[in-house]
Specification:
With 434 residues, the protein is mainly alpha-helical. It has a single domain (31-433), classed as Glycosyltransferase. It has 15 helices and 18 strands. The chain has helices at residues 2-7, 28-37, 39-51, 66-79, 82-94, 138-153, 168-182, 222-238, 249-264, 296-303, 309-324, 359-362, 365-371, 375-392, 413-433; strands at 9-11, 24-26, 64-65, 105-108, 127-130, 162-163, 166-167, 184-185, 190-191, 193-194, 218-220, 265-266, 271-272, 276-277, 293-294, 335-336, 396-399, 406-410. Strands 3-4-5 form a three-stranded antiparallel sheet. Strand 8 (184-185) and strand 9 form a beta hairpin. Helix 3 (39-51) crosses helix 14. The longest helix is centred in the C-terminal third of the chain and has 21 residues, at 413-433. The chain is globular and about 60 Å long. InterPro entries: 6-hairpin_glycosidase_sf, 6hp_glycosidase-like_sf, GH94_catalytic. Residues 58-339 form the Glycosyl hydrolase 94 catalytic domain. It comes from Chitinophaga oryzae.
Length: 434
Amino acid sequence: MGTMAQAQTEKMELLSYPGRISATVPGKAALARQILADHRLDTVQERALRILTGFNAGTGYGEIWIRDFNTFINGSLKVRKPEDVKEALLLFFKVQGADGNIPDGVIKEKQANIGYQYAYSNLAPGWASHKNTVETDQESSLIQAVRKYIEATGDRAVLGEKIGDQTVFQRMEAALDFVLAERWSAKYGLVKGATTIDWGDVQPEKGWGVALNKETKWAIDIYDNAMFLSAIDDFMALKPAAVNVKKNWKEIAKGIRKNVRKHLWDNVAGKYIPHIYLDGSPFPETFDENKILYTGGTTCAILAGLHDKKEIRRINNQFLDAAEKEKFATIGMTVYPPYPVEVFPNMAAYVYQNAGDWTWFGGRMIPALINADMPAEAYAEIIPMLDRVIKNNGFYEWYDVQNGKASGSGDFRGEAGVLYDAVAALKKWAQQAK
């Protein structure tokens, strides 16, 4: 009897992060029952599905953004017809550039009245598109979304559908080719982009921060490379047996993995350096950027398979340590510490992507922890995210870690979609472990 009781209890280190696991964690079966009995998970999933009936990012956004749509497409497929979801997905291939680039957003032509440089395509009448050129994740996001759509629906025939004179699969490879042609550093063998905060889309310099300009400082970071790695893996997983590809994408991915570890990963600190600069840094020499922890890109790196369980545990502890330093933070706090406004004039500290708290990325860590056999941590770390949604009676774009205020777009579908997927992953684990 005593032996069985001992086997049912797993001793783990106490985490002081509010709402986190206690010193003694129940065995897997008991933890599974606790998860399945927690109605907060059901409540948040149900609320998420209510707002995932639309495809634009949320209130305040007229566009369908591919980086957002990629993160809520699974939820969309639960409440919308597959044909509707496919139509929205294929819209991005219809506005694809001649060079293979994928725009960020598509919007009804009549609503295209913000400061973007809009483009138009004969393949998508009535629609306008635009690209936040400082980013290098649009192509990767679309390919990831296609795989999610196919895995959920079984509709592999979509890969052979013709859009203009190319199939969807050919257009997917053209998107990957664009990154290699226009966003590639031959010196480092890695993907490049403009200097932004982690996964963000705003440059430090004042002005229209989402567009490349004469002040742009090209750099390499983990987010762009992790997203591209996942996209290559998805592309190759979807490749029809009878179709040949233009490049050896598996070898390209192998090289990226090697070069990420060589150039971006700081093994001593157990974290990623924020940037490798290709033409000088936008920051003064007196500013030590390497002290900053990037959480979103690091989470994407875990999901891309760049870390073993030991490293994931160390990374997670760093996320928890950072969150403990701010009263209302979760592991979704983008970076820590924030960039001082003196070096990042386009975004004040603790605002938006500069150490704002985004469940849109923090929630992605939950499946990553489950995959690393850390279900107790996954459950503990999602709790404050769930409680926040319930308390605010909605999904918000980001949260202020100093006062807890919900900010940005309301009914933010990115947060809703990521939490829907995170809860689904927890429930799946619990059903198998109970």
